[in-house]
Specification:
This protein is of the alpha+beta class. The chain contains ten helices and 22 strands.
Length: 501
């Protein structure tokens, strides 16, 4: 009996909750929107990657002489200059060889002098026919042989002198000792005579300029190009960023934990020698920059495919909204060939082309077919930046002229790189926003530029006095609509198991 009472109480609670939902379901599920003003702000687009510091030039120092190391006056971390003594190998054998070579040279010189004196006497005797011609030829041969012996002695002396000098290992470049492999008393082998290539004494590098090898995800690699500004931060100097520039992008990718990444080399001045080889760094690549441009939250942007769900949320007529969008875009197209966005008369040939969803005028002096061919390369490109980077210098200049002459490209926006304004424009697109006009939501087609994933630059379509609506995401709207339909079916069919008398 007690158990039946508990079940009855639970059923009453469920019924009460269900009827409360039926009464208030529409109001509870009604999606709300927020208002956001069109404001001016700075927009920075960047890509981040981790990497390590490494020297640009590393030299392994070896000795041409073999033997025991007598002296090694340097340690790791020491800064050395070209020609500075790094190590001294046992010089006794090379010095003995040098003294022997000097004595051999003295003997060869004496032998040559003696042979020449013998030749002069032979010449006098031959003129008086006191000796035979064969004896005279023998005297000349002795002089030639003595001269050859002198040359050999001079060469042996030079080799011995070089071998003696090779016992002193000196720095080949200006740099820092980063690794030391031997100490005094170690017996080493020659780099020129040993089969193994010789013993490595130490490793040194020039750290005045270093490079960072950063691994950039393949989804961001299309944004990176040589010459791009990069900010480097290291744990050792968290409050001191280091500035560098992209040197190159390695063509061969690396895969780690099923993630494909590309090594990117960044050059960094290191005059203070604060950056050490092997340091872990965070690299921030400055892809694009806009200063003081009109911007709105990305959540306010709607694609053409999302317009239907947005109009349903706002209770607007979809046919009227589509007509308003079409008329606004046609008006923008008609105005593109007349006046630029900053109020200056556009200098064009009168013809226009469709460029990334925008109708832009063809500047005077530009071949129309060339402009259309360039636009065709960008049409449908999933990564317009990569296409832009593949263009020739002449095509890039033409693209800048085309994009610079289109609506909304003025306004004083500044860029960090020579072509970043064009790059950023290519990163934008065409969207629809709903703005409050006279207190009523109205669709407004807009063209966007650079975006930092939170805010997008408004190239055309809105002014600073406008206010836009931030609507729920399309997926949230669809789930709310589905819930409302379920509630409607629930209300019409009644609660299963409960009689609707």
């Amino acid at each position: 009996m007690k158990r039946f009472g508990i079940i009855l109480i639970l059923m009453v609670a469920v019924v009460a909750t269900a009827f409360a939902v039926l009464r208030n379901g529409h109001e509870a599920l009604a999606p709300m929107y927020q208002l956001a003003s069109v404001t001016r702000r700075d927009i920075v687009v960047s890509a981040s990657a981790a990497g390590t510091v490494e020297p640009i030039r590393t030299v392994e120092v070896k000795s041409k002489a073999s033997g025991e190391i007598f002296e090694m006056p340097v340690e790791t971390g020491d800064a050395v200059t070209t020609g500075q003594l790094l190590a001294r190998v046992d010089p006794r054998v090379p010095q003995a060889t040098l003294r022997q070579a000097e004595a051999d040279l003295t003997l060869a010189q004496a032998q040559l002098e003696n042979a020449e004196a013998q030749l002069r006497r032979a010449e006098g005797l031959f003129e008086t026919e006191s000796i035979t011609e064969q004896e005279y030829d023998t005297a000349k041969l002795s002089v030639a042989s003595a001269r050859a012996q002198l040359v050999r002695a001079e060469r042996s002396l030079e080799d011995a002198r070089i071998a003696a000098e090779d016992t002193e290992v000196r720095a080949p470049i200006n740099g820092v000792i980063i690794q030391k492999f031997v100490e005094e008393g170690t017996v080493i082998t020659s780099a020129t005579m040993g089969v193994s290539g010789g013993t490595i004494l130490l490793q040194m590098a020039n750290l005045d300029t270093v490079q960072v090898r950063a691994l950039v995800d393949e989804t961001d690699i299309g944004k990176i190009r040589p010459g791009l500004d990069v900010t480097i931060t290291v744990d050792a100097f968290k409050n001191r960023p280091f500035d560098g520039k992209v040197l190159k992008i390695e063509p061969q990718s690396t895969v780690a934990q099923n993630v494909t990444m590309f090594p990117v080399l960044v050059r960094i001045p290191n005059s203070d020698a604060l950056l050490k080889p092997g340091m872990n760094v965070e690299a921030e690549f400055h892809v694009g920059f806009r200063e003081g441009v009109l911007a709105i939250p990305n959540a306010a942007l709607r694609t053409d495919a999302d317009v239907l769900s947005a109009t349903q949320v706002l209770g607007l007529d979809i046919e009227v909204v589509q007509q308003q969008i079409a008329e606004a875009r046609q008006a923008e197209t008609d105005g593109a060939s007349g006046v630029a966005s900053d109020g200056a008369e556009a200098t064009s040939s009168g013809e226009t082309i469709e460029l990334r969803g925008r109708r832009v005028p063809i500047p005077e002096g530009v071949d129309a077919e060339q402009a259309r061919a360039l636009a065709a390369k960008l049409e449908g490109a999933s990564d317009p930046r990569s296409v832009f980077q593949s263009l020739s210098a002449e095509e890039r200049q033409l693209m800048q002229r085309l994009m610079g002459g289109g609506p909304g490209m003025g306004g004083g926006a500044q860029s960090r790189e020579e072509v970043s304004s064009t790059d950023a424009a290519l990163m934008g697109g065409r969207y629809v926003v709903f703005a409050l006009q006279g207190g009523i939501p109205q669709p407004v087609p807009v063209t966007t530029g650079i975006t930092d994933l939170d805010y997008s630059e408004i190239v055309s379509g809105l002014t600073q006095s406008d206010t836009v609506l931030i609507l729920p995401s399309t997926s949230l709207i669809e789930s709310q609509q589905e819930m409302q339909e379920r509630m409607s079916r629930f209300r019409g069919g009644g609660i299963p198991g409960i009689s609707r008398n």
